[in-house]
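Weekly structure sync, notes
Attendees: PL (lead), two postdocs, one rotation student
Agenda item 3: pending single-chain targets
PL asked that the sequence for the first pending target be pasted directly into the notes so everyone works from the same version. It is reproduced below exactly as submitted, 119 residues in total.
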Amino acid sequence: QVQVVESGGGLVQAGGSLRLSCAASGSSFILNSMGWYRQGPGNQRELVADITSGGSAHYVEPVKGRFTISISRDNAKNTVTLHMNNLKPEDTAIYYCNVKFYGDFNNYWGQGTQVTVSS
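Predicted structure, written out during the meeting:
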């Protein structure tokens, strides 16, 4: 059974930094990619950044130059980390980790973690 466990998040003032981490384990398939999505109040869930198992990263325009995504593997656990710098009030949202595996058509999600940026 695949487990996706997130940590990090919290409350920070504008211009501050936060780090989100997500660990995925329990799959017998090879990892394809991991990423972070967010859902702000009244908005749909949207992609923030993702990264392939080979380390190729992709960012949406609003976070380019401010967020950095990285991936690592330790034994049977894959971890994705999102470093968020120069945070803005519009970054306020619930952030969700997403995990995809080759050969597995399921889309795995974490429980979500709140990020609040005060002005």
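Discussion points:
- The mean pLDDT is 96.
- The CA atoms of residues 33 and 100 lie 5 Å apart.
Action: rotation student to compare against the earlier draft before next sync.
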